[in-house]
Automatic annotation (TrEMBL):
Name by which UniProt lists this protein: histidine kinase
The Histidine kinase domain, residue ranges: 216-430
Annotated TM spans: 21-40, 46-66, 86-105, 138-155, 161-179
Matches recorded under SUPFAM superfamilies: ATPase domain of HSP90 chaperone/DNA topoisomerase II/histidine kinase, Homodimeric domain of signal transducing histidine kinase
Amino acid sequence: MSAGLRNAVEVEKLLQLNRNQLVAAIIGIINPLLLASVLWRPETAHFLAGWVLVGLAFCGLQLRAWWRNRHRPRPARAPRNLDLRVCLAAALGSLYWAVLPVVAIPQADEAEVLAVVIVVCGTGVGGAVLLSLVPLAAAIYFAITFVPTIAIVLARIPETPWLLALLIFNLFVFMTVTVQRLHQVFFTNWANAIETSRLAEEARAAERTKAEFVANMSHELRTPLNAINGFSEAMAAQLFGDLGSDRYRTYAQDIQASGHHLLEIINDLIDISRIEAGRYDLQKADVPVADVLELGRRLALQAAMAAGVELRVQVPVALSARLDRMAVSHVAMHVLLQAVRSAPSGSGVELSAAAGPDGALTIAVRLSDRVGPGPGAAAEVAGGPALGMQLAQALMVLHDGELVLGAPASDLVAEGRFPPGTATGVSKPG
């Protein structure tokens, strides 16, 4: 166990001991009053009154310490002499209970002796359990409380069989093993809990660091990329004169296309990092679903035209839904791009939407007019969902929905399922 983990466990032990003081104080108030009422007689009145007052004063100190410590912030370290303090307190508390049998039992009748044995020994057992976080203190409390009481009883009743003494010894061994076991369980459980909490906090810190790194690096990369894209676009359009060779214009177009592609990847990384960091806020509003999907189609249109794939949108007329317009259009765009990567040239891709009776909205992307192999083989060659699909899935989760990928052999590429109540207006299909 590392020093930091051991210190954390020691601090938790200190806090648990303070919580146990409340239980000990309540027991310490009730039991002395109970025994004093049973043993009260004129010849022991002064002793019992003083004994009860001492016990109440001790319990008052415990309650005061418990009340003060419960409002304090969690300490950084536990006192070095914590175990020694607990042992001294256990010795004083057990001596308080050991005095009563020595004075009261010789003058008590059998019923009173039984009451003293039950209460004192029960207090010894309960105190040992409460002090099990410090095994030595538990052993001191149990021994000093228990042994004198049994010794006085055996002296008072000489005919007590030795079998009873053996049972008492077995009880002492049992309590010793129980206290040791409770101590081990406490340390094991709290050590595991603290270590798990530490690992979770380290994971959260690493996630925050990663998100901040991606956001910062993405910003640093976007600035020069915008310049590259702008200059390459100007060169490809030959705004300031002829480049002199068609190859230069082709190179400029390639640079522009590559720059735009890299910029899209960076933008996706930024969005994913914002979602993971919990900094992506949806701007939901009632919007026409056809407009949202048409925007997604236009965003994917250039890639589709380059691949020779036709994109079509089929949405019921006046279907509206409460969602984030830009986020869902990007979901549609990324799923369409995935479909374009999967579709052979000359095929078509259909983007559709439908609403259920409960207002659950479904957006689906399917292949149509296939002229070659299905999407399964192409998708496998492409290596599965790309970064854009990961972003699409994350955006669907933000909408309390899910993005379900189609089976390899089916025409369905993916289906976005929004929760009930998303669709706010439906009319006849167009």
